[in-house]
Design a protein that fits this description.
Elements (H helix, E strand, L loop, with lengths): L1 H24 L3 E7 L2 H16 L3 E7 L4 H8 L5 E5 L6 H4 L5 E5 L13 E4 L14 H9 L8 H10 L10 H11 L4 E6 L9 H6 L13 H10 L13 H14 L4 E6 L5 H4 L1 H13 L3 H8 L5 H27 L2 E2 L4 E5 L2 H5 L1 H10 L9 E7 L2 E7 L2 H5 L4 H10 L4 E4 L3 E7 L3 H17 L3
Parallel strand pairs: 1-2, 1-3, 3-4, 4-5, 9-10
Antiparallel strand pairs: 6-7, 8-9, 10-11, 11-13, 12-13
Helix pairs in contact: 1-5, 2-5, 2-6, 2-12, 2-13, 5-6, 6-7, 6-12, 12-13, 12-14, 13-14, 14-16, 18-19
């Protein structure tokens, strides 16, 4: 059954590839619109690299949400083909009104709307494939160019998958097929190792504090705690992990496994890349920092192969973003979450906390700072609106929770919009609707838990 689903998804992707190739051959400039996170930037990198290699031209825009004003502006543009990456599936009704051809390469839960003949919709959910675990937005985009003999771009799709937390327990489903392509092309290698951040470029205590996936309770987000931990082991905390002796590395490895066994796992590297980008998860984190800081052009230029000064700038952004995450984790420790019946929430108007709200909500659950038996909503005030970042853990999904559905339904009551995945989702609502919205989501999650069959 699974192979049948994958085969159907690949057939749909081949239709998208044929449509893309046709427009490139006819000399049309391809209009690309992609999401602004690590997955979306990777997706944009996949499609634009492919177009460039085929001798085509493109015009790219990176956006945080596909709002109606964005769609209406795009509709007025004179292009023959629009490609929506890591977004679009929730906006099928307005996209149906476009006269041009459209490719949607997404993995979020789609709207229940039939599409016109001018739209090729590539989304794993349409074929019974789990878009929150088995295929990312960059993965869907990669499938749309795979038949152009682009296996060397598969590694970028995996970078995107890491951005959506899909590779932490090993790749599965369609991601596994993409991984195989990357290995065959020689762009990715796998070995067992410690999944600590920037282990060849940062002091080891920083590597531990910056390790958010998988999280290390007591160390993640805590520079002082990481220093003390290493001192207790009799290890120097000021040098890089790669500069520790083999015996010291083994000592640290054994101690970290006691904290979280998942820290020793498969590590995915791009051997032909420079050191800062060799670890696919590090690459993903750098793109994520570009997105969070609204430096979309910088992130896209990295995905298109630019290095040198562009990478130096991106690394500074990543380091600054990590400092913000540390501050965010300290804030969660101090403030905690407000508890409702079935959900909990964090709320901030602080400029720095707002930038990292989704990440600290997610990590707060995994390190035990927040109640793992309740989904968490991170609320960030943006003038007259509130941006909502919802996160939960896999056991809650198994109990019936679907955050994407809950946030979509509840936000629509206030003229807002929302959606995403069962495990991670977002919404935008008016500020004055905050309390009523939280009450509705609390009820929606209670209903999901009570009616899980």
């Amino acid at each position: 059954m699974t192979q049948h689903k994958q085969h159907s998804l690949l057939n749909r992707s081949a239709e998208a590839c044929n449509m893309l190739k046709k427009h490139i051959d006819e000399g049309h400039v391809i209009r690309v619109i992609s999401h602004n996170d690590a997955d979306g930037l990777s997706a944009a990198g996949v499609i634009t690299n492919a177009i460039k290699e085929e001798g085509g031209q493109f015009h790219v825009t990176i956006v945080s949400r596909l709002q109606m004003d964005v769609i209406n502006d795009l509709k007025k543009e004179n292009y023959e083909l629009f490609v929506f990456c890591d977004m679009g599936s929730a906006c099928l009704k307005p996209l149906n009104s476009f006269k041009a051809d459209i490719i949607i390469a997404d993995h979020h839960q789609p709207a229940d709307v039939e599409t016109g003949d001018n739209i090729v919709h590539v989304n794993p959910h349409l074929f019974g494939v789990d878009g929150s675990r088995e295929l990312s937005g960059a993965g869907s985009t990669y499938l749309c160019i795979r038949d152009l003999d682009k296996k060397h771009l598969a590694y970028l799709a995996l970078v995107g998958a890491f951005g959506d937390m899909q590779g932490e327990d090993g790749f599965m489903g369609m991601n596994k097929l993409i991984l195989q392509d990357a290995i065959e092309s020689g762009t990715v290698e796998i070995h067992e190792g410690l999944k600590i951040a920037s282990k060849s470029t940062e002091a080891v205590y920083k590597s531990l504090a910056y390790t958010f996936k998988p999280a290390l309770p007591g160390l993640t987000g805590d520079l002082e705690g990481s220093q003390q931990f290493l001192e207790q082991l009799g290890l120097s905390y000021g040098i890089k992990f790669t500069d520790l002796s083999g015996e010291e590395q083994d000592l640290l490895k054994d101690a970290l496994i006691q904290i979280n066994p998942k820290i020793l796992s498969e590590v995915y590297t791009a051997p032909k890349e420079i050191s800062y980008l060799q670890d696919l998860e590090d690459f993903s984190d750098i793109l994520d920092a570009c997105g969070k800081n609204k430096k979309y052009g910088l992130g896209l230029s990295l995905a298109l192969g630019e290095r040198g000064e562009a990478l130096d700038t991106a690394l500074k952004l990543r380091n600054n973003y990590r400092s913000q995450l540390i501050k965010g984790m300290e804030w969660v420790k101090k403030e905690g979450a407000v508890q409702l019946n079935t959900i909990q929430y964090l709320y901030s108007e602080d400029q720095i906390i707002k930038k990292v709200m989704g990440t600290i909500a997610s990590v707060g659950l995994t390190v035990g700072l927040l109640d793992e038996n309740k989904p968490v909503l991170g609320l960030s005030r943006l003038h007259k609106d509130i941006k909502v970042s919802g996160r939960t853990l896999r056991p809650m999904i198994e109990r019936g929770v679907n955050l994407g559905k809950a946030l979509n339904e509840c936000s629509s009551n206030f003229g807002g919009q929302g959606g995403g995945h069962d495990i991670a989702a977002g919404a935008m609502i008016p500020y004055e609707a905050k309390d009523e919205f939280l009450h509705l989501v609390d009820q929606a999650i209670a209903y999901q838990l009570e009616n899980n069959s």
